Amino acid sequence: MQKLKNYIYGEWVEGTGNGVPLYNAVTGEQVAVSDTEGLNFEQALDYGRTVGYKNLSSMTFYDRGEMLKKVALYLLERKKKYYDLSYKTGATHVDSWVDIEGGFGTFFTYSGLAKRMLPNTSFWVDGDTQKISANGTFLGTHILTPSEGVSVQINAYNFPVWGMLEKLSTSLLAGVPSIVKPSPFGSYLTNAVFQDMIESGVLPEGAVQLVCGEPGNILDYIQDGDSVLFTGSATTGRKLKSLPSVAGNAVRFNMEADSLNCSILGLDAKPGTPEFDLFIKEVRNEMTTKAGQKCTAIRRIIVPEHLIGDVQNALSKALDQTKIGNPLSRETKMGSLVGRQQYEEVLRKVNILKSETELVYDGKHELVDANYDNGAFMSPKLFLNDKPFEKNISHDVEAFGPVSTLMPYKDAEEAAALAKRGKGSLVGSIVSHDENFIAETSWKMASQHGRIFVLNRDNAKESTGHGSPLPTLMHGGPGRAGGGEEMGGLSGLHFFLQKTAIQGSPDVLKAITKIYQQGAEKKFSDKHPFQKYFEEVEVGDSLETAGRTVTDADIVNFSNVSWDHFYAHTDATSLTGTIFDKTVAHGYFILSAAAGLFVSGKKGPVIANYGLEECSFFKPVYAGDTITVYLTAKEKVNRGVKGRNIPSGVVKWLVEVVNQRDEVVCVATILTLVAKQSPFIDLTVKNVQKILSGLTESTPALWGKMSPQQMIEHLDQALLVSLGEPEADKCFTPEEHLEKWQDSLYNHRAMPKDFTAPFLPQDGSLPELTHKNLESAKQAFTDNLKRFVVYYKENPQAEHMNFVFGKLNKEMWELMHKKHFTHHFEQFGLI
């Protein structure tokens, strides 16, 4: 029988005890054994704090985001084997998709957030700079840095993959190493995914460790700076939180616990309305998805008192139609609980609920390709609490399975009151088309809920459902739900980051934050900032423009072009009692005129205006005033690009407009997309000739079998094909992969050295030489390069077939040749 290994201090380690046997929830057969006996938890924690912290915290947020994406892609390619294991936990294909690919999706989401919104530094500047002195020589701001410690993540059994990855997505992105401790039940699935994460080679040493079984005394070794993330019962969570090692030290503790979530049917949602049907479907799904083993499942069904019978009948019929059984069967819509132990626990809670409320539905389903004796199957159970303000059992006891309770209400006030009797929930939902009812109920129940989900006919098609936590929104809830906050977009990182106030002069803050601060030293040079590639731009790079005197004609013309005829710009007779002495220039004209002064008209690395973050106007500008602009590189933001976009970054520029009296009249922050410097050669004939001057018959190849002349003739043939001489007769790349291959022309990744050209002889032989010597081959090659440049100037819309990339236009052929030439010139050590 397979004994699951643990991954600690960089090694796969097997426990020394008998361990906990793990069973197939469908057949009852033993699957594996989890065992943590004999592990040195103190060493594991120390390894994370030292090796793991050093490696992760030194990475930038941008690079950590790229790391998450690479891991997710690696796992996605291997997903089939995870599904095969997930079925053994009793999960259907849909259940498994939520767990497995939902987990991968969380990594992808956080990777995207990092690339769009986080800096390419190992720290994060939080909020605006505060001016805390009269003359602006003393400023303050905040930075966020990874807390120096290790995060111990204790997960529940219901989501073996998502439960791990949703916590790792924030801790790893924040730069904090983690020790993952899944529940033993289903841990064979967690173990398989974790093995592949390590095998990918993407994660730095010490970033993650895995304790696959009982936690032992691991929390005894928690110390200042460490953190604990717990998902499970509130009782267990409170015990862990009160441990001396946790309570007595500066240990961050996040708990996501019990939750008696509710769903409220609106007073307007009568039978026959779309909302009534949506409500029945949503409740049925939440009772049966993962066999009700979800912390977000609907446990309390709050319904207008006159609709109780209608809802009970409709829901019973829907549950009758839900096929239960072996998850491998296509007929099955609900699988089993994760094991017999969990079955007995749910049954115990069902019996407690029976003591005070009536069981009105207990469908005796025939199982599909399974039996009740071997597996942990339970039919859905629906209770009725006819007096929910008197009978409290429904608000106190959570049966963590396909179990829910109906309860009546009279009005919005009562509906919200019942929702809050759960004493803190992860999610509550309202199904209604009455906006007033929705608003009133939401406001009143919000204090006791982490998330409120509203469903109606307007959003049903795109809704993700009551029970689906999303990476961009907070997952957690107050009170009984634990008071925790996981995910929530970038706010989910704050749990793992230390916030520190920084005070100093503008130059000091610029040096620390890598963001230009007003009043800091500017760096002027002869080269226009817009002529610098992203890598060349430095924070503080500045430009002082010439002056421009504003005229009455400017104001009139801008009014006519913009259609902005606001009286202050056009009617001098209406200015009495205003702040203006005479007709004033439009604020947006001042900003436009500023752009006219600082923009470089010459083509350069700046690709486009990316946006305007902030803009303030401080003093009016009148005809006769002269404005001058100071443009300063304020901040650089790396960004990922996909598809056919030029690799680029965002540069934020501080624009300061002053008048002839040196008074600041306007301050704005504009954003530009700035191209990154290409690692590939320029296609100019002069540049290529210069490179080729170093190539001789005796120049050795650093890889491959080509001679210098064969290489030149190979490149020459590629040029001729791009001119249609001859037209390539086919593309060897399958149609379904062609777009991806064409997109790759736009990135800055080099061509692979081991790529076998499909159009060359399969025996590895090379075409016969066509020129008498290397020099004549060089001459023909440069002549054809000149023809290529002229041809696409005269025929800019021309397209010709490439053997690998398909039909290419002018831009794509240029990109292909740049990569291709660079690849072979590097092959012979020429560049």
Short note summarizing the structure:
By secondary structure, this protein is α/β, with parallel strands linked by helices.
Plain-language structure description:
By secondary structure, this protein is of the alpha/beta class. It folds into four domains: 6-256, Aldehyde Dehydrogenase, Chain A, domain 1 (3-Layer(aba) Sandwich); 262-464, Aldehyde Dehydrogenase, Chain A, domain 2; 522-675, Thiol Ester Dehydrase, Chain A, CATH 3.10.129; 685-828, no CATH class. It is built from 23 helices and 31 strands. The strands form eight sheets. The protein has a seven-stranded mixed sheet, with helices on both faces. Strands 23, 24, 25, 26, 27, 28 and 29 form a seven-stranded mixed sheet that branches. α5 links the parallel β8 (151-154) and β9. α3 (79-86) packs across α4. The radius of gyration is 33 Å and the shape is globular. The mean pLDDT is 92. Pfam families: Aldedh (PF00171), MaoC_dehydratas (PF01575). GO terms for molecular function: oxidoreductase activity, acting on the aldehyde or oxo group of donors, NAD or NADP as acceptor. Residues 460-484 are annotated as: Disordered. Keywords: Oxidoreductase. Residues 12-499 form the Aldehyde dehydrogenase domain.
